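Weekly puzzle thread! Below is a chain. First person to post its structure in token form gets bragging rights.
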Amino acid sequence: MIERVGPCRLAPRTEGTHFDHVARAIVYQQLSGKAAATIYRRLCETQGGRAPNESELLGTSDEALRAVGLSRQKISYLRDLASRVGSGDLAMESLDALEDDAIVERLVSVRGVGRWTAQMFLMFRLGRPDVLPEADLGIQNAVKRAYGLRTRPTPKQVLRRGELWRPHRTVASWYLWRSLDATGGGEP
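Winning reply:
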């Protein structure tokens, strides 16, 4: 798989803030990449082309947020994130000092942020080396294909197989996703 996919090009996203990264992830949930990118670009345009911080997001009316294409539900998620960060309940910029499980625990306390989103934050924002998003359908499909399984493995089965990849499960996940690209299977 590594030979077929080629060199690993995984690198943490360092632009913006931790808050930006999670807010962007919320916007992108359950949307096509193109639709989400358009909505996120419009949201940034409300702040002159940059991502809004927590106080700016809280100060933007629901009507203005709906006008950029956000659903009421996503507005409530973004407001919960902004409120928790603004109040100091969630110290985003010090998250990187915590262990992975503690980061997941803090992030999933935000409405609309689940384990998968927290795992993506660990992998693609903080560059944590040993994260395996076991419930990700792309990962499950890639494990099925790589190991010649008849059925897609359960999250528990993915974790069991993933023990072999410790302490580099983030890189293994990247290769699993890319293996689907290389064979026409797509990415989640």
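Puzzle host: Confirmed. Bonus trivia for everyone else. Confidence is low (pLDDT under 50) at residues 184-188.
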